[in-house]
Structures
1.
Amino acid sequence: MGAAEEIAEFATLLGELKQRSGLSYEALAKRAHMSTSTLHRYCRGDGVPADYAVVSRMARLCGATPEELVELHRRWVLADAARERGRRAAAPAPGASVAPVRPASEEGAPSVPVPASVEAPSHRPRRKSWPLIAAAVALVVTVATALTLNRGDGDPSAHGTAPGRATAAPLTVSTRTYGWDDPQCEGKYLVDRPPAEVAPPVMGQDVPGWVKAHRAIAADEQRVALTVQGTGDEAVVIESMHVGVADSGPPPAWNAYLGSSGCGGGVETRSFDTNLDAPHPVLSPKAGQRGFPYKVSRTDPEVLYITAHADTHDVRWYVDLQWNSAGRQGTIRVNDHGETFRTSGSRGRPVYEFLVGGTHWYRDA
């Protein structure tokens, strides 16, 4: 199935749910907190939401059943991967000169500069309903960048093994470092700047831009989503995943800021925990989840969630994913779009919060 068909299948189901709800485009868009034109684009297949929270919110407003939510999630994963392949294909060659783009938010709010400096989600799930302040973000970053790894070309972050020769992996892995499963879940970040130089917190797909602009570090807890999809007709078995630590040291003496990561959920997931403070971190299935192996194909991807915890260390880490297919086997090293994941404890650091409807950060602890 080609990229256009995958996006069309997602749009078709979304359009069917909208039609069945009896809501007009204007009414549904208002309830889903987006513009009418954006909703039109999604239902026509002219665009794919970068964040599943948007999809989940629309589907629930339309009265989708649990089975439809699962199917819609599957189609969104395929459509999002197709959109990303198209984006990479259209990217300019290395060294090409491109004028910077400063996109507006999905709801049409203008982009404005923000102070430059954080990184990943939080420790305390207190569910504050933070306001969506998209105008505070100058750059919306595409988070689910598909990494077609294990090419056998010497890439240190992707490698495969086969008897006597290198082998190309028959699967791709896309990473999303803000994969929280509740639209109001909180994120906690370490930022090396005073409150006056930190923009207000944001939600959903604006979070990566906020994090990148502030050069933040995920504090206490980080949830990473790995979307694994086959590239050919043969099924691929994911045999295991292992956490590797590239570097570990004391947490930086920065301020901690509480914000919302705003990622949706409601779909049964393959979820794992890991303690990065341990000498040798391991992945453990969360309650109710089975462990490996899992099977993926081009039409049946899997989304694997890892919740990494750190209390007393600042850890740079990665994941090695072992696979086999049709007598071949290999290992893919998964990271944060070319960089290691980074999660740090924040014990003893000053904590700041931004009140709902407020105008500034205030000291919480």
Note: The chain has two domains: 3-89, 134-363.
2.
Amino acid sequence: MKTQTMNAIRQETLGGPEVLRLVEVERPAPGPSEVLVRVHAAGVNPTDWWHRATGGLTGGAPVPLGWDVSGTVEEVGLGVTKFQVGDEVYGMPLLPQAAGTYAEFIVSPTRHLARKPAGISHVEAAALPVAALTAWQTLVDAAGVQPGQRVLIHAAAGGVGHLAVQIAKARGAYVIGTARAAKHDFVRGLGADEVVDYTQTAFETAVSDIDIVLDAIGGEYGPRSLKTLRPGGIVLSIASPAEAELTPVAAELGLRAAFTIVEPDHAGLTEIAALVESGKLRVVIDTVLPLAEAAKAHEIGESGRTTGKIVLTVDAVQPTA
């Protein structure tokens, strides 16, 4: 019997966007408690180009890229009752293990997916999981954001930031974002109460009495963010594992800091879908490209100048020679 194949983005070596190639590979099959998803769209995230260039958390070896997915259940594995063939789903399978959503099909554990939010496209749904779960798990699960708390969100116009602003507002927080002046209207439109132009003002001199900082930038932003906290406040970094070094520094000052890694989360995805369906959360799309142009998507993403998310659409594609 002939093995079924599919088109997918793969890389043979670590490196820049140019190492990404569209190739033909074996189509996966779902095992027990798994589903096979026909991918309609795949989100692009900083963790993707980090893994492409360095191997990320995999020990330095190339892995199939992509963790954001929105699509339709094609097959169900043994014991699956949560989904049926034809269900529209979205999610973030397997992170930090390879999921490979830059492909026509992927296999996922059922609990790493949820039903796609009603009323939005697969492109919009594919832009949500990694960024929205990162914001949700950081602000809600880790920080326990409460009504009336003051929340500072760095890179508030970015992929995670623009969703974090909305999630914090939906939880009743007073939200301050940092962004370039050109993006202030955009960030205010998301619900931010204040916006600081970090290119003109040292945010730590303009902002104070903060309960929670979400830091998507890292480096000097961590120590500077500590200066904005009120007693008992916390800086939560999503930038890189190196930011964990801020934890003991904060403790010496009677403050808190931590580095967080997003995890697959059916419950969180369901909460996010409810926010979308209620009109309290919308994802902004910066760029949409076909799967074959994954390298271009990485180039755009690594420029650091996007507003919102980059998404790859997955239709009938042909591998490159």
Note: Residues 131-259 form a domain with the Rossmann fold fold (CATH 3.40.50.720).
3.
Amino acid sequence: MDISSAQARGSFAAYRDDGNDLSRLVDLERFPIDQPGSDTYREAVESVRAQLRVDGCALLSRFIRGDIQAALQEESEALAPQAFFSDNCVNPYVTADDPSLPSDHPARCFQHYTNGFVARDLIPEEAIVKQLYGNTAFQRFIADCLEEPKIYEFADPIAGLVINVMPDDTELPWHFDTNEFIVSLMTRRPDEGGEFQYCPDIRRPGEENFADVQRVLQGDHSLVKSLTLNTGDLQLFKGRYSMHRVASAKGQRLCTLLGYAKTPDMMGSLEHTRKIYGRVTQQHIDAHNQRRQDELMG
């Protein structure tokens, strides 16, 4: 075990949760996810649903208890040195270049990418974020907020639960997600900047809307919304259809991404996984030729 992993285990082992009891991690007074069927639970769910209906994005401020936020930040800072940094250029779909397309096509707009990710298989079982990710009460709450009968953890052994590491003065460029929705937990707010910026429903299943995507890439932000997240905030976002990025930040920004899917077989694409995480598994190779039902790029 390396030093950073040992530090991480030591910093949050005391907060290990048992079963479905999230009382030591989540502010259950504001978000009573342990009381399904209650009026307060239904009110919390409906509040999130209302936000998602507006533009596919919902913010749950101070979701993690205030007295746990320091430990949450410490564990992500301890794990951050294990991130893989892909210093390359990617298009919004994280696909390979296609010379058959016009030179000004959005799929040929490549942006510099300097972010790092701590992969799922590097995050210890004792981590607060891993406890939250696998907790059935939390998963039920997220499914209810998304108006889904059930959600599943990713089958992907590398993605699914990852920590996005943004060093000082870097940004996460415009992109679409592989999954229809993503749950993110801010674990370290940067000193300045680092706003989450997104274009609500800029594309739909079977309709790429390349014209508007190109406008945004060229600097027209009339379709762009901006959101600031603080340490301990939870966000639900439908990133498969809404192009998004994280603006340049001063000071390190750490955000954990909790990936769930409507089916139990969700895998990242071969090209995306290789570029973002620096490695693939046989599972990724086997899934490579399976076509997404929404027929969208990426």
Note: Helices lie at 3-12, 39-55, 69-79, 128-134, 136-145, 210-217, 270-277, 282-287.
